[in-house]
Amino acid sequence: MDLRESYDYIVIGAGSAGCAVAGRLAEDQSCRVGLIEAGPPSKGRLFEVPGLYPRQLKSLYDWDLHTEPELQLGGRRNYLPRGRVVGGTSAMNSMLYVRGNRADYDGWKVEGWSYDEVLPFFRLSEDNERGESAFHGVGGPLRVSDARSIHPLLYAWVDAAVEAGHSLNPDFNGAVQEGVGIYQVTQRDGLRCSSARAFLDPVAGQDNLQILDSTLALRLVFEGTHAVGVEVDRGGAVRTIYASEEIIVSAGAYQSPHLLLLSGVGPADDLREAGIAIVADLPEVGRNLQDHCGSLLALPTTTDHLLLGGDTSAAEEELYATGYSPLTWVEGGAFVRSRPELEAPDLQFHATLGLTVDEGLGVTSRAGLSFGPYRGRPASRGWVKLRTPEPYSKPRILHNFLEEESDRVVLRDGLRLALEIAEQPALRQHLVGLDAARSEGLIPRSDGDADLDEFIERTAFAFYHPCGTCAIGTVTDPTLRVHGVEGLRVADASVIPNEITGNTNAPSIMIGERAADMIRTGATSAAGSAHAPRAAA
C-alpha cells in the first residue's frame, strides 16, 4: 500500500495565478488538488479594507525582497514587496484591473497567445459591474468594479491631463487603451476581491482541495527528469508530497525561477557552482527579468484628502456598512505615447492621493497628490539567481533598470508630460506651489535632461510588475510545460516573454485560467484551447 501523501495536481504558490489554477482545477470534484503557500491565510480587515494595504508592507505578510545595487539608480537597492499570504500579491496590491495592450500580446508572436486568443480567458474570470460586452464578462469569480468615493483631487488630475491634450478614456480595457481616466478595481462592494476570494472561496470546504498554508516549498522532487513531488517545510517538519499527474509552479517572477534553480533546473554552470545536481540545463531560467521603472512627482496640496494613519475605525465602519469610504482606494491613470508615430502607448501613469516617497513605500501625513509615469515596455533586462543553495535564503535579484538608454529617454519624456499636467489650471488651483515642491526635491528642478536624470536616479523604483524569468519559448512551451522535464508547468507572470503595458495582476490571473483550462481539456497546443474556454462552474 502506498501511504505517501499525494494529490493529482500540486500547485505551488497561492498568488494571483496559483489561486486561479487551483480553484479552477478543484471545480472538478474528482480531481484532488494540493495548494502550497508559504504564508498564512489572508483573512480579516487588513486584507479586506483596500486602504489598509500599506500596513502589510515590510510585515510578516511581505516577502520583503530587494534588488542588488541598481547602478543606474545611484546604487540603490530597490524594495520589492510581494504578498506572502494566501492570495499572494493580489491580497496586498492596489487592486487596479489592467490587462495590457492588444499590441503586447500580438507582439509576443507565440502560438495561442495573441490578444484575440487570450481575451476569452480575461472575460471568463470577470464579473464586471458595467455588464457584458465584447471586451468584458459577467458571472465570473473576479469582481471588477468602478472606483468608489473618488476624491476631487483625482478628478482634478484627470481634468488637468485632458487640458494638457490627452483624451478621456473611461475603459482602459476596452477597444482603445490610450487616454486618461480612473482605473477599475478588483473590489466587491468596496472591499478587496483578491484572487483567493475570487477562486478559492467558491470551492472552500470541498474535500478535493487542500490549502497547505504556512508551508514553504523547498525543492521539486524528480525521478529522472519527471517531476513527481515537492519537498516542503511546515512548522519545521520537512516532508515530501507527491503529484500523480502534474506540478504547477505559480510562485511568481522571483520565486518560480528560484525554486526551479534550487531543484536543478536552470543554467548548468550556475547549478554546478552552487553544488546542485543538474536535472535539466535551461540557460534562460531566471534570465529576461523585466519590470516597470518610473518616478512619481509628489505635490503638496491645499485640498485635504483622506485618513493617512491612526484610528480608521469610523471610515472602516462606513465602508462595511455602505461600500463607500475614503478607505476604498482609488487611482487615476493614463496610457500615452511618448512619440506620435508609435503603434501603442509606451508610458503608463498612476495618480494617487498623498505624498508618496521612499520608492513608493512611504506616504507622508501632509495633504498631497502623487503621480508619474513608468516605461511600459522596457528594453532593459535583469536576472534572478541563487544567493545560496539553501531554500530558506532569498534570491539575488537585479533588474538592470535603465541599462538601455531608450528606457531613460522614454522616462524623461514621461516626466516632462507629468510636469505639463502639473501646470494645468484644473490642478494648479489645488497645489501649494510648484516652486516649493522643487525646493524640497519632490519634483524635478526643471525639464532639462540633467535635472530629470538627477530626479530619476534619486527617486525611480520598480512598480512591482515583474515578469519574464520563465518565459514562454525559452523556458516553457506555449502550453506552459517546462522544457527538458515532464510533469511540470509554470503558470504566473514569469512566463510573460515581454512586459505588457499595464499592471500584471489581471494577466497573471488570465495565465492561471489558461493553465487550468489546458490541463483539464488535455490541450496539446495553446492554440487548440484558445478560442473556446470551458464555462465557469
Overall morphology: globular
Q: Low-confidence parts, pLDDT < 50 over ≥5 residues?
A: none
The major beta sheet can be summarized as: 7 strands, mixed
The level of helicity is: 25-40%
Q: What Rg is obtained from the alpha carbons, in whole angstroms?
A: 22 Å
| Secondary-structure-derived class | alpha/beta
- Average pLDDT, all residues: 95
Tell me the β content: 15-25%
Q: How would you classify the quaternary structure?
A: single chain
Give the total of beta strands: 27
First-residue to last-residue Cα separation: 35 Å
Number of helices: 15
Summarize the structure.
The chain is an alpha/beta fold.
Q: What does this molecule look like?
A:
There is one protein chain. This protein is α/β, with parallel strands linked by helices and 537 residues long. Helix content is 26%, strand content 21%. The strands form nine sheets. Strands 1, 2, 10, 11, 12, 13 and 27 form a seven-stranded mixed beta sheet that branches. Helix 1 (16-26) packs parallel to helix 14 (505-521), helix 4 (115-125) crosses helix 14 and helix 10 (405-422) crosses helix 13. The model has no long low-confidence stretch (mean pLDDT 95).
List keywords for this structure.
537 residues; alpha/beta; seven-stranded mixed beta sheet; five-stranded antiparallel beta sheet; 15 helices
